[in-house]
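Hi! If you just cloned this repository, the fastest way to understand the data is to look at a raw example. We've pasted two of them here, unedited. The first protein comes first, obviously.
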Amino acid sequence: MEWITQVFGLILHLDQHLLEFTQNYGAWIYGLLFLIVFCETGLVVTPILPGDSLLFVAGTLAGTGALDPHLLAVTMTVAAILGDSVNYGIGKWLGPRVFKMQDSWFFNRKYLEAAQAFYRKHGGKTIVIARFVPIIRTYAPFVAGVGAMDYRRFIAFNVGGALLWVLLLVYGGYFFGNLPWVKVHLSKVIIGIIVISMLPGVIEYLRSRRSVS
């Protein structure tokens, strides 16, 4: 589908698009990045938005002086915490009946079931681990809400996971993103980040298929 190609093209050239937006709109870039991270973590309808790669590339721009790394880290952390909290609240409001919903353009039950299996295995730690796993990252807080996980326990994992995720990737991009080799091969680095971040989910899926068979 054409829109999928456009999304992947956007992700692979995030550095160019973010730099262009920064040059054209200045401080509004922080609002845009906040919105993307909030939607990617807070709404089950937007799991394909960039997360890991976005944070790393934004960190590389901070390394060039285009962004303030500390303001960036704070903004992204707040967005990640609020996103998970909203997602948890939606899941708690919908409750277990969500598993009876049919697939549609905005809801994929397979993603939900995969996140539920991940949550069953790792418990509350899922909220932290899932920060580094695309798709699962979007559905994990939702599943925690559906399962009525104690909110005080949830918020502790939420804040801890957000800090770990954002700080590692933003400052990783800040310190390593402007190395000569990384600058030349940034598209390959972005692909590598996406592949590595998806490995836990793929491995978990293969294990579940093997146990069923």
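Ok, and the second one:
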Amino acid sequence: MARRFAYFIAGWIIWLLLGWTLNYQEVVAGAAVALIAAGMFGGYLPLQPRKLLNPVRWFWLLVYIPVFAWQCLKANIDVALRVLSPGLNLKPGIVKIKTNLKSDIAKVFLANSITMTPGTLTVEIKDDTLYIHWIEIRSDDPEEMAKMIKGPFEFFLKKIFD
């Protein structure tokens, strides 16, 4: 029951932040949607309430958002320059990288963060290994490639989820 309540509170807060209004109808609608979602899915979600409501984790999430946006912007510019450069020889391929993240949700967030940055696509997650399709393999050193692909994502996701 505590898990469902924690997800209700988190969902309602997210609703209020995204709507950015304290209009009575919006507050009630957000509470209803959060209550239904928590009732239906609260038992399946992976985080413990103590972890979910930890303000330090929320702080790191708020720090992560602009870092992620910056990485996406840089990747968008990189891909746009590649598209606008005729005759550019690309070297696409699948890269195998290891992650230090322990929880499944952290690994999924890392995979999604990598996939949402243009030029990369997470193909598979297997234990602590991610297989990433990369638009251009720039190095033969696996450690260097992993550092380039994961960027700062892993550092922040470890603080948020592990």
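That's it. A detail worth noticing about the second one: The helical segments are 2-19, 24-41, 49-52, 55-84, 104-116, 142-150, 153-161.
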